[in-house]
Amino acid sequence: MRLPPIARSPAEPERDTRTDNPSIRHAQFGRANRSMRLQTLVWLRWLAVAGQTLTVLFVALVLHFSLPVGETAILIAALALVNLVLSLWYPPTHRLKPLAALALLGFDLLQMSGLLFITGGLANPFAPLLCVPVIISFASLPLRHSLFLLLFAIGCTTLITISPYPVPWHRDEILIIYPVMQLGIWCAIVSMMSFAAFYAYRVSMEAVLLADALAATELVLEREKHLSQLDGLAAAAAHELGTPLATISVVAKEMERELAGDERFGEDVALLRSQSERCRDILRRLTSLSAENEEHMRRLPLSSLIEEVTAPHRQFGITLDVIEPSGRAGEPVGQRNAGILYGLGNLIENAVDFARQKVTVTVEHDADKVAITIEDDGIGFAPDVLTHIGEPYMSTRSREDERAGGLGLGLFIAKTLLERSGATLIFSNRGPDHEGARVRIVWPRAVMEMKA
């Protein structure tokens, strides 16, 4: 396991965690607010009504099996009636609260259990359909509601094992299902129900977590772009304020000329004019900021990029060395990219957090590729972490590091942004005994010069 960050002295500044901001925390709320669209459930229930009706008609009219048509028709009509009321009462875009969805799925389960109870119980070949409401619940509802429905479904499955009604069969024959066979069918249904429910829950939760993490990634990228545009906004504001401030300055000069000998107001007017001139100088510098630095802000050499992402992390008691074996001659120069800046900065911050004394950043480039390697001298990645690294909400920190939180979301965001820029990331350890972590980021040079 990686070691928790080295304790900082009280004199050292405290950094803001890159993923600990309100916008990203808000992006995580989707995991707890899982809801089901009513229209989806209505269409599934109409499909169930059609399937049950066709099955009953086929068994009764084509196969001529003995079947309680009246009772089955009542149960199917009850499902259709509830579905019709839902369709008329609520708009198609209505989303069900978890308890409401649980109630509807419970009703579906009860209706299906009633049909099976009067048509042979577990001996009915359609008995495995009891799993369907449970699977839907685990795929779309919170876990506690789904577990309740699973227990209810197991209870219904157990109840229909004592059905006194025979399986629809030829009139002159009786299909006998021995208790041992019924027990085997019960075990098979419960096993399939539990396994399918667990599988549906895992798949849906991974999709929800990935969606939340990608939303957080977009928020971070948008925030970085917003910060990079502040200089332009400042220049625009300075330009708009220039005209009224010039008017104030002219009026102040006229007042100073008229009241120069006035003991009451002369000094105040002189102060007003000097401060207006000072404001004009400040606005003049803001107006020229974008024009003077526009090219520098748009184009960024590789060495400047490395300095920009490493500079904020040099004041925390950890030695941060930048090694450039390829030199700066012929280094790639590309467009400023907020995603690359954030991604590299997050990886360097992570290395500083876990380093004992030193973090090394090695920058290499040639005619074909650009590579940046970030290494620390802490305890590296655990073997089980390396296989899942970069997954959202997967901690790469030790459990003792409660201060850090360790959701793994920051690393996911960094990895996603860098991969979007065309980079390939390789996570490994420096030594066979997990001595120090290493992250290597490689771009094709042509891509880096276009994206950097």
Write structural notes for this entry.
The chain crosses the membrane at residues 43-67, 73-92, 125-141, 148-165, 177-201. The chain is α+β, with helices and mostly antiparallel strands. It has three domains: 34-221, no CATH class; 229-297; 314-451, 2-Layer Sandwich (Heat Shock Protein 90), CATH 3.30.565.10. The protein is built from 14 helices and nine strands. α7 (179-228) packs across α13 and α8 runs antiparallel to α9 (266-298). The longest helix has 50 residues, at 179-228. It is elongated.
Chart the SSEs and their pairings.
Layout: H1 22-27, E1 36-37, H2 38-62, H3 69-89, E2 95-96, H4 98-117, H5 131-140, H6 143-159, H7 179-228, H8 230-258, H9 266-298, E3 299-301, H10 302-310, E4 319-323, E5 333-335, H11 338-354, E6 358-365, E7 369-376, H12 383-386, H13 409-420, E8 424-429, E9 437-444, H14 445-451
Parallel strand pairs: 4-6
Antiparallel strand pairs: 1-2, 3-5, 6-7, 7-9, 8-9
Protein name: histidine kinase
Pfam families: HATPase_c (PF02518), HisKA (PF00512)
InterPro entries: 2C_sensor_his_kinase (IPR050980), HATPase_C_sf (IPR036890), HATPase_dom (IPR003594), His_kinase_dom (IPR005467), HisK_dim/P_dom (IPR003661), HisK_dim/P_sf (IPR036097), RegB (IPR047770), Sig_transdc_His_kin-like_C (IPR004358)
